[in-house]
């Protein structure tokens, strides 16, 4: 185990930004910290980087206590959200910076620095940009330079804060694959922060889902996708339909729903909440069913369907357009759930709704000033 | 054919968003012409009237030369001091949070607001042999009043805000992440200042210092009280120009004024050139 955190706590004034974080990162692993803004993920990254200190808790790297070391002593490579390149230095000078500021005794010779920089430029496929200034680069190119600058000091851990946040969709996808290949060939333990679920799942070996300063779930992308551990993770991963159900002998039941496709769960009898993705709900024509279709709209590949019951329950579903030929507004349907996650009890209705999550970062920023 | 003709706007006028271009531009140009360019032109013409030989005679006369030398040297001392102190002040005002910061920030502008004659009088009172500072310095054998040091102090008093006010906004706008990046790459605080912060503020710093120097060259009110105005010793160039004018020696006055203006213009050009060179290198984003 290379990086170990236990019970890390951090508060800014009255706001508890981190409330006891326990996380172990293995050598060479690629970890994503995933969560909405205000969940504390960037603060955690800054603490690992040595740019911020926790109020309590431990942080160690290969047995050494990192809280006793400064950012410079930890030898971490940090890539900032807006790259933070040195504007008055060329790409080459930016990448060489970490080597040129080493104490004279450890500093490599000029020729050796130039060679390292050239090797990185080639490795990151930006040799042609070597003598440009950051203002002459596109966002994606700046990202590569920022990574090159961080990698030049041969960091023990690479930290990236929202690495693709400021890029457009196409560049984002390309860079994601590129970063994965860079990680695989360089083998540096890497932690990156993102609020984009797709990004986290595509890139990371393991994903850490954070919310309100605590870790909600740690796991492999598929694991988290199929089995969200808490109602928050379920909602965050797009299981936006929340259905009150009744558990009977390990099976969930709800009026107008066909839930027999769901596996049995060892849950107590009584009320529970079923979380579903709109895409995992199939409307099936059934004249006797309590639901009728009120809206059908197309997004191109998908039909977005709204079904309402006589008792006022409103459910959204998504159907591939080629499977939805028979659907018409007004027709009665029963809803068949293909997959979903059940949590005991009635989930507090949107306890951590997006609105609540949005207010936290402002409070946080004020406290930082 | 006709449809193409219709699609093209008739003139550039129709595309402007802000109205009143003609009026505002006209006013600006008239102002620059009447208040700035015309007097400068008059001065140059007056100087040209003298003829190069006579001009050279006036400027190289011992008294004029001494006055010019004093003015430039004192302005250089004042600027060196202001550059260092102004940078420090801007740093303190932007980087640290302390009680009374806003008050200190407001006090920076006092030299701008204070009539220069008042500044000159109070400085003279402080530094004269029985003043607060003078009574301490005099026993040590240091006299400020009626020396070049007095001139330099008066000049630096009136021009220090230029450096502070040009550097301050640039320091405030610096992205803290850039410094954090340097820190995480292992740079020491001093290295961060030398290699990351200072290059960023250098253009503004140079501009501030140049303006401070230009202002010091022409400082009159504050200086004449503390300088003592001894010919050949502590007589500044602009005072000498005024003395010549009072002697109805218009040519002498114009020649000195023209020389001062030339020095200021050369300095401004130099600072602009340095700035543009650095911007090209720095690639301001």
Description:
The complex is a heterodimer of chains A (369) and B (285). Chain A is an alpha+beta fold and 369 residues long. Chain A folds into two domains: 229 residues, Rossmann fold; 100 residues, Beta Barrel (OB fold (Dihydrolipoamide Acetyltransferase, E2P)). In chain A, α3 packs across α4 and α4 packs across α5. Chain A is elongated, with a radius of gyration of 25 Å. With 285 residues, chain B is mainly alpha-helical. Chain B has a single domain, classed as MetI-like fold (Orthogonal Bundle). In chain B, α7 packs parallel to α12, α9 packs antiparallel against α12 and α10 packs across α11. The N terminus of chain B is likely disordered. At the A-B interface, β6 of A face α10, α11 and α14 of B. Chain B: GO terms for molecular function: ABC-type sulfate transporter activity. Chain B: It is a multi-pass membrane protein. Chain B: Belongs to the binding-protein-dependent transport system permease family. CysTW subfamily. Chain B: Its main location: membrane. Chain B: It holds the Pfam family BPD_transp_1.
Q: Provide the gyration radius of chain B in Å.
A: 24 Å
The number of E-state strands of chain B comes to 0
- Domains of chain B, number: 1
The number of helical elements of chain A comes to 10
Shape assignment of chain A: elongated
Say what the CATH topology of the largest domain in chain A is. Rossmann fold
Give the number of DSSP strands of chain A. Answer: 20
Sheet with the most strands, sense and barrel status of chain B:
none
Order of strands across the main sheet of chain A: 6-7-8-3-9-10
CATH superfamily of the largest domain in chain A: P-loop containing nucleotide triphosphate hydrolases
Shape of chain B: globular
What letter string, H or E per element, gives the SSE order of chain A? EEEHEEHEHHHEHEHEEHHEEEEEEEEEEH
In CATH, the topology of chain B is named MetI-like fold
Structural class of chain A: alpha+beta
Q: CATH class of the largest domain in chain A, anyone?
A: Alpha Beta
Q: How far apart, in Å, are the first and last alpha carbons of chain B?
A: 44 Å
Mean pLDDT of chain A: 86
Largest beta-sheet characterization of chain A? 6 strands, mixed
